[in-house]
């Protein structure tokens, strides 16, 4: 289940739950946060509708009208939250990339070159081949990200290490940059997927992103 499918399902029914949805939410903090927000708003709407009429204070407007007005306001807020999540998928993707990299702080400290065989094993698990020299790769793991295993690499550049995530299943409409948690990053479209490149301390990663998009070759996706 993709993030877009998950968010549409949550928007239609915030209380929905099934094994496929729950499996996606385990690995996707962005979608978990959306469901929490939507469930909170849904609870506010239900409380507004169920609220008994106020009898102690006279009013020119019927109490039931006030309840529906409050419910309508909460519903509009829910639509606004959902619209933000659906219309800005690249921002959500960038945030989740940063969170994933933060979850593996030791990756930046890798100091030994990896064998070409171990790197190839990580790449082939996701159906990827790279033209880049294995001598430049200091860290390589196959990580579970948004429901799929993706190559998580640290590449040594002239300006220090840079992290690369090759996202076969994440489509983006164009090149986008971001800055978060002390990291600078860029996500570039590549074929049917995309590539995220990050550095710490504001190091330039534009050239590396361009080279990576040229060096990545998509192979047939291996069976899961």
How would you portray this structure in words?
Helices cover 44% and strands 24% of the residues. It folds into two domains: 3-87, no CATH class; 91-218, no CATH class. The two termini are 14 Å apart. A hairpin with a 2-residue loop joins strand 3 and strand 4 (160-167). It has a six-stranded antiparallel β-sheet, sandwiched between helices. It has a two-stranded antiparallel ribbon with strand order 1-8. It is built from seven helices and eight strands. By secondary structure, it is α+β, with helices and mostly antiparallel strands. Helix 1 packs parallel to helix 3 (29-50), helix 1 (3-12) runs antiparallel to helix 4 (63-87) and helix 3 packs antiparallel against helix 4.
Give the overall shape.
elongated
What is the C-alpha radius of gyration, as a whole number of Å? 23 Å
Q: What is the H/E string?
A: HHHHHHEEEEEEEHE
Summing up helix and strand content along with how strands pair, one would put the structural category as alpha+beta
Overall pLDDT metric = 80
Number of strands: 8
Strand content: 15-25%
Tell me the count of domains. 2
User: Helix amount, in percent?
Assistant: 40-55%
Major sheet strand order = 2-3-4-7-6-5
Q: Main beta sheet, described?
A: 6 strands, antiparallel
Secondary structure tally, helices: 7
First CA to last CA: what distance?
14 Å
Low-confidence stretches: none
């Amino acid at each position: 289940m993709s993030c877009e499918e998950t968010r549409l399902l949550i928007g239609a029914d915030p209380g929905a739950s099934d094994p496929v949805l729950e499996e996606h939410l385990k690995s996707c903090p962005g979608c978990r946060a959306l469901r929490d927000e939507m469930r909170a708003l849904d609870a506010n709407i239900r409380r507004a509708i169920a609220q008994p009429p106020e009898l102690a204070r006279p009013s020119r407007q019927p109490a039931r009208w006030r309840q529906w007005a409050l419910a309508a306001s909460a519903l509009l807020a829910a639509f606004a939250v959902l619209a933000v999540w659906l219309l800005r998928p690249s921002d959500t993707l960038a945030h989740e990339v940063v969170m994933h990299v933060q979850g593996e702080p030791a990756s930046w400290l890798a100091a030994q070159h990896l064998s070409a065989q171990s790197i190839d094993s990580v790449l082939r698990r996701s159906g990827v081949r790279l033209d880049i020299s294995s001598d430049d790769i200091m860290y390589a793991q196959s990580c579970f990200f948004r429901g799929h295993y993706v190559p998580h690499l640290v590449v040594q550049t002239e300006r220090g290490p840079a992290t690369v995530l090759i996202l076969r299943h994440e489509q983006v409409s164009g090149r986008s940059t971001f800055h978060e948690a002390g990291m600078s990053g860029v996500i570039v479209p590549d074929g049917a997927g995309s590539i995220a490149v990050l550095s710490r301390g504001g190091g330039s990663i534009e050239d590396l992103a361009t080279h990576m998009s040229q060096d990545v070759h998509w192979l047939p996706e291996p069976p899961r």
